[in-house]
Write a structure and sequence with these properties.
With 774 residues, the protein is α/β, with parallel strands linked by helices. The chain has three domains: 244 residues, 2-Layer Sandwich (Aconitase, domain 3), CATH 3.30.499; 181 residues, Aconitase, domain 3 (2-Layer Sandwich), CATH 3.30.499; 157 residues, Aconitase, domain 4 (Alpha-Beta Barrel). The chain has 26 helices and 28 strands. The strands form seven sheets. The chain has a seven-stranded mixed β-sheet. The radius of gyration is 25 Å and the shape is globular. Bound molecules: 3-isopropylmalic acid (IPM) and iron/sulfur cluster. The site of iron/sulfur cluster has 12 residues, from loops. Iron/sulfur cluster binds next to loops.
């Protein structure tokens, strides 16, 4: 039947469509957000914006905050408060600012004295805050992790954090559907980390741009939830906005008994499971991009270069620029080998290491630690390993690992056993590499300077990192007799998807209980007016040429500058490691922005694709803006960066026509001005001749030209949001997260008071009796 296919939906289509509050003619959609995770790095400016506008957090019950990036992983035995515990002043200020904000805005917060503190992407699932079919956001690119539950989970910038806090919605557009199907079976010793590294090697770091990836196939089905999280976590390294796995019995089994999941076996649980079971792609649904892989082609995989697409099986040798056809890849390979201090043709297994890091939101869960412990048990780390550390993803994981004796196995082998946090994944805390140190790391990014200025990162699975620590070199874990693939799931349990009607009196009472006073969190100043942004109509100025591909946001603004609680003042740090000598801080004369006339550039013209990939840090556009650059022209952009620029009144212009881009680059290289005319959508040379037309999204153009800010516009939709929320309360009542909040309310003169302190109770009762092992 012609046209019949149009009704067939993918998992992504279903979850997305279930959250549409409003759709404009140009396809701009107001999307409802069910779950918002907040951490200290990307929230201060958002809360500040909220305070300045006199706005409240619309749904504190759907918001969960913790500290993870800046905190030391040192023992907390003597912990009193963050003020005395966090030594580094900027880090301390960021942590204290979050604590201030959660108090002022009444949010649930897991602080350093709470076992439930940990990396946002670990604690959300652990608590059952992340649920199938939900929309989940966080000012953090690895929010994609939560897609393992069949939720639509993606990272956002700080302006969007403010938008969600104020409105519980986001303005967005539909993404494309991409299917990555891995069939067959995995070889022993191959884990989901190897699978995802392999996938990124195949599709490239821009392969998923504009897409949501659905991971499917027999290999994905056979993975545990923790293994699926590791995969979805790195969707962002494949350029995708999100990764998803359809929920199944493995998912439901994982969620049983989680504090914030519906109570197991209750009517609500059954209703939820019934809905969750419907969340799978329709047979025959069409995907915009399809990738089919066979599990047997995947070997234990490691990265050799400075991009997550630079991966090879551990049996391989360091490549040469000549191995690549694409000019950008040749150039990147050459740079990467220099940076990594590697010679083409060297067997990967001959590469000697200095440090080993087992942790991060990719691989710091219990199964990861168990797999690594199995490898190191009874052995000692090699003499050349200066430091090997294990950093559990949360306090609860740490406790459980200790109960299983894993800490002892690690410390006996010579590893450090640390407290939960992001740690050496990006080194915003004291855990960093020294210049030129080489590290085997279970994290997700191997960008230049990621783990410390001039540090060299090799990404791999936990058991591989453990084996590397013992041997002192990159190692094939399969050479270790005890190595096993611990990420294979246990036998599936069966859950009866029996439906029970929920509309009993007590259910309704509970539904009506949120929000308790019926409108405590609606914004009072919702007139739709806002401070607004400077208008962008035309921009004429010097354009700086940059011949690089895959410029990541770590390169645009490195982690040490993310500790600010302001949006301004980052211009001097822009492209820090390209711009300054990291040994003595002097300017590197070869870098374009250190040359005349480019010190005054207003436009950046990039020749390589995928500009702004990696982290969601809005500090990247803030740094460009502070330097004076308001417009970036490139063949393509990473999704989050692209969004973030618009929110700051900047214009990113994708120019895919190579000839046109070359002409623009030539003008830039000649040191001439160019003119970007947004109203007429053309780029002109200094004499006013048209060089190239460009496309821009209608709604975004409208906002830029008129200097409109999104929050004000969205607040005009208040009644539609309320209607959506009412429907949500009736259809999916388990999403009204009253569990923590209710227990916090104080009868303080009738006012609703929520304490920003460790939460004493959960849905299941007193936290003291909370079982740690799930
Ligand atoms: C700090 C945050 C913005 C960042 C991200 O978005 O990924 C961080 O988690 C990272 O891994 O670089
Ligand atoms: S990628 Fe690293 S820094 Fe970013 S959230 Fe995960 S653990 Fe933290």
């Amino acid at each position: 039947m012609p046209g019949a296919d149009k009704k067939l939906k993918t998992l992504y289509d279903k979850v997305f469509e279930d959250h549409i509050v409003n759709e404009q003619d140009d396809g701009t959609i107001l999307l409802y957000i069910d779950r918002h995770l907040v951490h200290e790095v990307t929230s201060p400016q958002a809360f500040e914006g909220l305070s300045n506008a006199g706005r409240k957090v619309r749904r504190p019950d759907c918001t969960l905050a913790t500290v993870d990036h800046n905190i030391p992983t040192a023992p907390r035995k003597n912990f009193k408060n963050v003020e005395t515990f966090v030594e580094e002043a900027d880090s301390r200020l960021q942590c204290m600012t979050l604590e201030e904000n959660v108090k002022n805005f009444g949010l649930t917060y897991f602080g350093l004295d709470d076992d439930r503190q940990g990396i946002v992407h670990v604690i959300g699932p652990e608590q059952g805050f992340t649920l199938p079919g939900t929309t989940v956001v966080c000012g953090d690119s690895h929010t994609s992790t939560h897609g393992a539950f069949g939720s639509l989970a993606f990272g956002i910038g700080t302006s969007e954090v403010e938008h969600v806090l104020a409105t519980q919605t986001l303005l967005t557009k539909r993404s494309k559907n991409m299917r990555v199907q891995v069939d067959g079976e995995l070889h022993p010793g191959v884990t989901s980390k190897d699978v995802v590294l392999h996938i990124i090697g195949v599709i490239g770091t821009a392969g998923g741009t504009g897409c949501v990836i659905e991971f499917c196939g027999s290999v994905i089905r056979s993975l545990t939830m923790e293994a699926r999280m590791s995969m979805c976590n790195m969707s962002i390294e494949g350029g995708a906005r999100a990764g998803m796995v359809a929920p199944d019995e493995v998912t439901f089994e994982y969620l049983k008994g989680r504090p914030l999941a519906p109570k197991y076996d209750s009517a609500e649980w059954k209703k939820a499971v019934n809905y969750w079971t419907s969340l799978r792609s329709d047979e025959g649904a069409k995907y915009d991009i399809d990738v089919f892989l066979d599990g047997k082609d995947i070997l234990p995989t490691v990265s050799w270069g400075t991009s997550p697409q630079d991966v090879l099986p551990i049996t391989g040798v360091v490549p040469s620029p000549d191995d690549f056809e694409d000019e950008n890849r040749k150039l990147s390979c050459k740079r990467a080998l220099e940076y990594m201090g590697l010679t083409s043709g060297t067997p990967l297994k001959d590469i000697e290491l200095d440090k080993v890091f087992i942790g991060s939101c990719t691989n710091s869960r219990l199964e990861d630690l168990r797999a690594a412990a199995k490898v190191v048990e009874g052995k000692k780390i090699a003499a050349n390993i200066k430091r090997a550390m294990v950093v559990p993803g949360s306090g609860l994981i740490k406790k459980q690992a200790e109960a299983e004796g894993l800490d002892k196995i690690f410390t006996d082998a010579g590893f450090e056993w640390r407290e939960a946090g992001c740690s050496m994944c990006l080194g915003m805390n004291p855990d960093i590499l020294s210049p030129r140190e080489r590290c085997a790391s279970t994290s997700n990014r191997n960008f230049e300077g990621r783990q410390g200025a001039l540090g060299r990162t090799h990404l791999m699975a936990p058991a591989m990192a453990a084996a590397a620590a013992i041997v002192g070199k990159l190692t094939d874990v399969r050479d270790f007799a005890q190595a096993t693939s611990s990420s294979r799931k246990a036998a599936p349990i069966s859950i009866q998807p029996e439906i029970e009607e929920l509309d009993t009196e007590s259910d309704l009472e509970r539904i009506l209980d949120v929000p308790e006073d019926n409108e405590p969190h609606a914004n009072t100043k919702s007139s739709g007016t806002s401070a607004g942004l400077p208008k962008f109509t035309t921009l004429k100025g010097i354009a700086a040429p940059m011949n690089r591909a895959n410029v990541d946001t770590d390169a645009i603004i490195p982690k040490q500058f993310l500790k600010t609680i302001k949006r301004t003042g980052l211009g001097t740090a822009l492209f820090h490691q390209f711009r300054y000598n990291s040994d003595n801080g002097s300017e590197l004369p070869d870098f374009v922005l250190n040359q005349e006339p480019y010190r005054n550039a207003k436009i950046l013209v990039v020749s390589g694709p995928n500009f702004g990939c990696g982290s969601s840090r809005e500090h990247a556009p803030w740094a460009l803006l502070d330097f004076g650059i308001k417009c970036v022209i490139a063949p393509s952009f990473a999704d989050i960066f692209f969004n973030n620029t618009f929110k700051n009144g900047m214009l990113p212009i994708p120019i895919s026509d190579e000839a046109a881009l070359q002409k623009i680059t030539a003008e830039a290289a000649a040191g001439k001005e160019i003119e970007v005319d947004l109203v007429n959508q053309v780029i002109r040379d200094a004499d006013g001749n048209t060089i190239a037309p460009f496309e821009v999204d209608e709604f975004r153009k409208h906002c830029l030209v008129n200097g409109l800010d999104d929050i004000g516009l969205t607040l005009q939709m208040e009644s539609k949001i309320r209607v959506f929320e009412t429907k949500r309360s009736i259809e999916t009542p388990w999403l009204d997260g009253s569990g923590y909040l209710k227990k916090h309310r104080r009868g303080n003169g009738g006012a609703t008071k929520v304490e920003a302190a460790p939460v004493p109770k959960t849905n299941r009762g007193d936290v003291k009796n909370e079982p740690l092992e799930w």
